[in-house]
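Regression test case RT-17, inverse folding.

Input:
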């Protein structure tokens, strides 16, 4: 009798597991089918082509930055955007297939990034399966799979064509804002980046001073800088901080995370590496002369790794050395980094944040100090290999000077840096030539 009871319960358990599995498989299949592109007859291949960096979709708390073709897992269009994490529930991609003019509609997966930091709006991936029988050039986004879409903006799908690497290192600077006027430190950082191996710097510019505009114009004409207009405060209430302040602000730090993700996808096909740090941060190699030899060594030591994280160290701008007090620089607004070679010691129970050099083709989603989703491994780079020189306001303001650590790594580059900065100041007429 006991044996019969055990057999009954076992059979019942098997039955429950089997039915549950069948229902799960059926549900997943239905879900997959619901995202498949469907050809529709209504509508036309029209609509004004969007030419702004940030485009607000009418009435549904969604902002589109740019769509990118992504075939790393399946053939999809991935739109980098900003959405309200609660209000936006459904979106659809409308694809126009040329030359036959057929229109396909795909239900979008809306993946709001996990690092909103409490703000109601956050970076999001809006992902749509593409039609199998065409490679659409443009996509429109609508709240419904039906309706008239002729007035919807059309977005060009980037990364459709494979590119060969045009540069080794592209540096992304997100959200230049606050009437930015730290001109001298910016020029010094730019020239250090070039010495270390950067060939392209992409800046998401909200605003800056007139003097800074003059410097940016120089670097644009030189071919080093690409400016992405970033008028996010025209669309949302922004915070200059990353921490949610509960003051009705919509998004933190001028949408920095969205800009960084866009920069990675924008440079996915044209740059071997993408560097994510701010204009007052420089990744300084200690064992190598430049980033190319450093990254070659790091990749050799860390096979299968695509994300390299470098530890941030504060060099307070309030603590100066008397070296390199170059009089002709004194009239240029901003910090002279060559005079700041004392760094703060590590704080107890506080982990120093990190910034990154990544293989962009292996990144799916990034945050500021780490990658959220990637195909490769991540590695923390030891401090004896490289560190981030971060010259800014002190974090440990009450430390006496003797508690700081003298670190003159930056001075290895002083001759080239001084010569190059002088050249820029002369050519931009910020300093009269000798």
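Golden output:
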């Amino acid at each position: 009798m006991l044996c019969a009871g055990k057999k009954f319960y076992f059979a019942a358990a098997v039955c429950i597991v089997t039915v549950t599995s069948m229902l799960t498989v059926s549900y997943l299949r239905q879900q997959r089918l619901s995202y498949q592109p469907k050809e529709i007859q209504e509508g036309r291949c029209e609509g004004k082509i969007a030419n702004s960096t940030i485009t607000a979709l009418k009435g549904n708390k969604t902002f589109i930055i740019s769509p990118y073709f992504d075939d790393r897992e399946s053939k999809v269009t991935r739109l980098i955007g900003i959405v309200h994490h609660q209000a936006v529930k459904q979106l659809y991609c409308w694809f126009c297939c040329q030359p036959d003019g057929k229109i396909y509609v795909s239900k979008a997966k809306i993946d709001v990034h996990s690092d909103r930091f409490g703000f109601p709006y956050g970076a999001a991936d809006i992902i749509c399966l593409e039609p199998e029988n065409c490679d659409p050039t443009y996509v429109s986004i609508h709240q419904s799979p039906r309706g008239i879409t002729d007035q919807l903006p059309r977005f060009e799908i980037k990364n459709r064509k494979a590119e060969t690497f045009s540069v080794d290192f592209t540096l992304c600077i997100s959200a230049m804002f606050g009437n930015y006027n730290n001109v001298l430190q910016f020029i010094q950082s730019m020239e250090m980046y070039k010495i270390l191996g950067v060939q392209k710097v992409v800046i998401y510019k909200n605003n800056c001073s007139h003097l800074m505009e003059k410097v940016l114009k120089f670097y644009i004409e030189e071919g080093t800088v690409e400016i992405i207009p970033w008028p996010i405060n025209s669309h949302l209430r922004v915070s200059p901080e990353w921490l949610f302040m509960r003051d009705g602000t919509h998004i933190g730090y001028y949408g920095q995370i969205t800009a960084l993700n866009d920069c990675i996808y924008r440079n996915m096909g044209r740059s071997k590496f993408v560097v994510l740090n701010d204009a007052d941060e420089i990744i300084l190699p200690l064992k190598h002369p430049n980033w190319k030899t450093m990254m070659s060594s790091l990749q050799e030591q860390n096979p299968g790794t695509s994300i390299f994280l470098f530890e941030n160290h504060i060099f307070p701008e309030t603590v100066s050395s008397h070296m390199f007090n170059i009089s002709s620089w004194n009239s240029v607004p901003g910090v002279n980094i060559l005079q700041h070679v004392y760094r703060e010691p590590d704080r107890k129970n506080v982990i120093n944040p990190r910034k990154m050099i990544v293989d962009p083709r292996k990144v799916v989603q990034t945050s500021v100090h780490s990658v959220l989703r990637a195909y490769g491994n991540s590695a923390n780079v030891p401090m004896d290999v490289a560190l981030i020189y971060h010259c800014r306001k002190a974090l440990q303001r009450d430390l006496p000077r003797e508690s700081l650590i003298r670190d003159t790594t930056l001075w290895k580059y002083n001759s080239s840096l001084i010569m190059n900065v002088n050249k820029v100041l002369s050519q931009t007429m910020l300093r009269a030539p000798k």
